[in-house]
Amino acid sequence: MDLQLKQKTALVTGSTKGIGRAIAESLAQEGVNVIINGRSIETVDQVQRTLQLQYPDVSISAAPFDLSQEAEREALYHQFPKVDILVNNMAIFEEATFAELTLEEWRHYFEVNAIVGIALSKFYLPRLLQKDADGRIIFIASEAAVMPSPEMPHYSMTKAMNLSLAKSLSLQTAGTTVTVNTVMPGSTLTEGVESLLESLYPDIASLTERERLFMLNNRPTSTIQRLITPQEIGDFVTYVASPKAGAFSGEALRMDGGIVPTMN
Ligand SMILES: NC(=O)c1ccc[n+]([C@@H]2O[C@H](COP(=O)([O-])OP(=O)(O)OC[C@H]3O[C@@H](n4cnc5c(N)ncnc54)[C@H](OP(=O)(O)O)[C@@H]3O)[C@@H](O)[C@H]2O)c1
């Protein structure tokens, strides 16, 4: 299938590792010029160089900005005023119970996981609408958006906000070829999740065995009983970013290995 993505430009927030990096790589494979983002200049440059070597036919750019800071967002807009695809991927997450969480931490999660996507959409959506050429905004939420985790109530709340915002923004696109959607991954084998498995099962050397126990004990509702690969999410997001997926609008698209035990 030709996804008709060649020569488009995508900004993937938080794309130095994990799911964001996989999305960036999958897009580059399809001929998309990709803007790599993260907070550290060194890490962003390293990913930029690696992907540029791997995909010489596209342009890979570096956007080392802390997007939780307004001034750095302004610098991003100044350097990259035009994109065709915005993937609001970046988010923070950490386990904490409701009793432990301070109001300051709630505010911080709202600021990083919700406001950044709002701010970037405020800047890029009018431009996408003006161009009206299959522009895309894709939010990366989580199964926690529809199945809030008791270990991460703050994170879960912000992920539910992503769904609501994407639906609201999709209403602004009426009658155009621009779409706004959310993809909700389930537990995915990123570097962060690999470290979590290590800390949960320090006496077990095999990653496969750690993963098996994790799924059995910690993710029993997953029907695939394995972690999703970042590449699976990356390839799905690339499809949603393509003109071929133009009939998805305001959708909350689950790719969670069956972990949410409801029909929708
Ligand atoms: N992993 C999972 O199992 C899973 C499951 C469901 C949903 N998700 C969602 O998928 C998305 C990606 O998760 P992940 O696990 O791949 O994350 P990750 O491995 O922790 O990577 C986060 C990325 O965001 C960047 N980042 C963090 N704060 C930033 C900031 N203020 N400004 C710019 N960049 C920033 C990080 O780079 P620097 O540290 O260099 O800044 C890194 O590139 C998130 O929205 C998450 O909620 C993940």
Can you describe this structure?
With 264 residues, the protein is α/β, with parallel strands linked by helices. It folds into two domains: 9-188 and 229-255, Rossmann fold (3-Layer(aba) Sandwich), CATH 3.40.50.720; 189-227, no CATH class. 45% of the residues lie in helices and 13% in strands. The protein has eight helices and seven strands, in the order βαβαβαβαβαβαααβ. A seven-stranded parallel beta sheet has the order 3-2-1-4-5-6-7, with helices on both faces. α1 (18-29) crosses α8 (230-241), α4 (103-131) packs parallel to α5 and α6 crosses α7. It starts with 8 loop residues before the first strand and ends in a 9-residue tail after the last strand. The mean pLDDT is 97. NADP nicotinamide-adenine-dinucleotide phosphate is lined by residues 14-20, 37-40, 43, 66-68, 89-93, 112, 140, 142, 185, 187-188, 190-193. One of its GO terms (molecular function) is oxidoreductase activity.
Give the arrangement of secondary structure elements:
Blueprint (H helix, E strand, L loop, with lengths): L8 E4 L5 H12 L3 E6 L2 H14 L5 E5 L5 H10 L5 E4 L14 H29 L4 E5 L12 H19 L7 E7 L5 H10 L6 H12 L11 H12 L10 E4 L9
Parallel strand pairs: 1-2, 1-4, 2-3, 4-5, 5-6, 6-7
Helix pairs in contact: 1-8, 4-5, 6-7
Bound molecules: NADP nicotinamide-adenine-dinucleotide phosphate (NAP).
NADP nicotinamide-adenine-dinucleotide phosphate binds next to helix 1, strand 2 and helix 6.
